[in-house]
């Protein structure tokens, strides 16, 4: 789970641990910690009026079931961070919300729309769900402007797409100054900003963010989380993220879920999970 430095083991790059816990051991301990996480408790964390809600979701890839009866609730303008050991199903939840998995049972709703059986393009156009992939999802040989235009492929016309691009560039001057540059020459932080901005072209209501800090220098990590915070707090976007830096993700998020073996083992506010000594020991590097 960590890297060895001077005879000690570090967790997620922050803090230290005196012993190594295998993924299986972490999963067993985390599962033992969790009390029953009820749908009502999750709705209470979401303020009682979820904007995005998952009920009893079983899903996976092909015939392999990864998620086993997942419930999830998050309100409009609220952020949720998913943490847990490798293989717990964190990214599979994002994939399921966007339509990348085989759904065997349960429901996913956004507002008044049941999106469970919709294709990804329909989830974006009809329910306003956008997926911000991990790093390296830009088209390196295209310009910044061309990359942004790719985000508007579902809009009614090229004119509408170009108007949306101009709105985004007006908001992010850093990209506007590089609109004619190839995306491949941007810094890591600028590429991540471009990925986020491309997702905004369709003006989504829900942002699924997969590992926003991965591969970035600390100064760019802070920039990315500031941008996401502004989209949540100023624009009312609902954000569900998976973040390898669990401490950073929970500090940002209104709500945190601990996933273990395809189930929600624990759920609380992000700040409460940060202060939980057992969560710290297992997932935050001590």
Rg for CA atoms: 19 Å
Number of helices: 12
Overall strand count: 12
CATH architecture assignment: 3-Layer(aba) Sandwich
What is the element string, with H for helices and E for strands?
EEHHEEEHEEHEHHHHEHEHEEHH
The largest sheet, given as strand count, sense and whether it forms a barrel, is: 6 strands, mixed
CATH topology: the name is: Rossmann fold
Quick one: CATH class?
Alpha Beta
Secondary-structure-derived class = alpha/beta
**The CATH H-level homologous superfamily:** P-loop containing nucleotide triphosphate hydrolases
Q: Provide mean pLDDT, rounded.
A: 89
- Estimate nothing, just give the exact number of structural domains: 1
Strand arrangement, major sheet? 8-9-10-5-11-12
| Percentage of residues assigned to helices | 25-40%
Assign an overall shape.
globular
| Low-pLDDT residue intervals, each spanning 5 or more residues | 1-19
Distance between the termini: 13 Å
Assembly type of the chains comes to: single chain
DSSP strand (E) fraction? 15-25%
């Amino acid at each position: 789970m960590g890297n060895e430095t001077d005879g000690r083991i570090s967790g997620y790059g922050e803090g230290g641990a005196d012993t190594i816990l295998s993924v299986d051991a972490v999963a067993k301990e985390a599962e033992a910690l969790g009390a029953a996480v009820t749908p009502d408790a999750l709705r209470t964390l979401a303020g009682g009026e979820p904007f995005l809600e998952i009920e009893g979701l079983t899903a996976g890839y092909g015939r392999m079931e990864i998620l086993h009866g997942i419930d999830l609730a998050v309100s409009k303008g609220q952020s949720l961070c998913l943490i847990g050991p490798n293989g717990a199903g964190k990214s599979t939840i994002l994939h399921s919300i966007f339509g990348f998995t085989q759904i065997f049972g349960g429901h996913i709703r956004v507002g008044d729309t049941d999106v469970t059986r919709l294709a990804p393009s329909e989830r974006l156009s009809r329910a306003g769900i956008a997926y911000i992939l991990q790093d390296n999802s830009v088209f390196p040989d295209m310009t910044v402007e061309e990359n942004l235009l790719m985000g508007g492929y579902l809009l009614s016309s090229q004119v509408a797409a170009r108007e949306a691009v101009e709105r985004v560039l007006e908001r992010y001057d850093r990209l506007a100054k590089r609109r004619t540059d190839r995306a491949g020459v941007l810094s890591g932080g600028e590429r991540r900003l471009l990925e986020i901005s491309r997702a905004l072209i369709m003006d989504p209501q829900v942002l699924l963010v997969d590992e926003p800090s991965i591969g970035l220098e600390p100064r760019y990590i802070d920039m990315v989380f500031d941008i996401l915070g502004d989209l949540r707090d100023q624009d009312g976007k609902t954000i569900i993220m998976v973040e390898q830096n669990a401490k950073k993700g929970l500090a940002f998020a209104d709500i945190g879920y601990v996933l273990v073996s395809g189930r929600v083992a624990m759920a609380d506010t992000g700040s409460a999970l940060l202060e939980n000594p057992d969560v710290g020991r297992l997932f935050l590097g001590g």
